[in-house]
Amino acid sequence: MRLGTIFSTAWEITRKQRPLWVFGFLASLLGFPVLVDAFHVPPLNEAYLHTMSHTTITPGWRPQSFWGQVMAIMPERTAMAVNAAEVAIFFATIALFVTFFALGEGALLNGTVRALNGETLNAGDLWAAARRFFWRIFFFPWPVGFVFSMIVIGSGLLIAFAAVQYSGWIALIGVPLLPVFFVTAWLITIYIHLGNGAIAIEDLSLWKAMRRAWEVWKPHFWLVMLTAFALDVTMWLVSTALSYAALIGVLALSLALQMGGTTLVVWFVNHPAILVLASLLLILGGRAILAIFLAPVVTFTTVGWGLLYSWLSGNWPLPPVASPSEAMPAPQNTA
């Protein structure tokens, strides 16, 4: 079975080629959507900063109940400065984790091909591959992601305008659009995975990879969809389990901070710079801990994407030199 062969071969490569795990860790730092949102930032709103609930913990690595108590008694000007710093951290950490993801993705996909060739991988060679493909993988999602974002934002603004001008019931038009946008976003992620394969496996330019991704997908559309679904379900199950573990960790931290009472709250109010630093360390530390557990799974699923692309592009099977698993028959061109 094709899907079974992809999974068994991906498992063998993941199990035997431990240097891949390093780059699986880098790719894992960006996380998976179902995980607790490490980028939660309260809006830059003075009233919100001083009226946010002191008992409700909202998503994010910072225990918001404690943060709320600090913000409630912090001078307004200082609170706004702290929150502005949080926004800066928001963009800086996103840029950092996206960078690590692009490096990890390129190394994992290229390492998949090397493993199929029977090579013994080492971190130095993989790092060279990661640097070589970095900018192409980094920029590949931007065009299609920008167009999709503009469509979603434009649709939302149009519906909101119509609802205000005519009738609130018009807003219900957005309900059936939600699953459409969700499925479209999923299809875009599949396209991006295949485009990354075109870059890191066939060494194509950015623009050629955009065409190549659809070329290899089209003749085997449903097979790609089935494989993508299986790989994403694997990630979803593991990420769901990790999200609960992360939530427990944040709750435990919140309770520990509450034990410090008013004294600890006042101390952080008097040391806002340390409060910002603690927020940054919680984001980086929380993501790093999750990435340690997620790295083998991200390695496995990314290798799976590499194997799928290698098969679709006719680059697998290769001559059986220490092949990690029985090769799958090459696809027939039905285009």
Structural notes for this entry:
- The chain is mainly alpha-helical.
- It contains twelve helices and no strands.
- α7 packs antiparallel against α8.
- Mean pLDDT is 82; it is low at 38-45, 53-59 and 319-329.
Write the layout of secondary structure elements.
Blueprint: H1 2-16, H2 19-28, H3 46-51, H4 64-73, H5 76-116, H6 123-139, H7 141-165, H8 174-200, H9 206-217, H10 221-258, H11 261-270, H12 272-312
In brief, what are we looking at here?
With 335 residues, this protein is mainly α. Helix content is 75%, strand content 0%.
- Ranges where pLDDT stays below 50 over 5 or more residues in a row are 38-45, 53-59, 319-329
Q: Determine the structural class based on helices, strands and strand pairing.
A: mainly alpha
Shape: globular
Total number of helices: 12
Strand content: under 5%
End-to-end gap: 22 Å
State the main characteristics.
mainly alpha, 12 helices
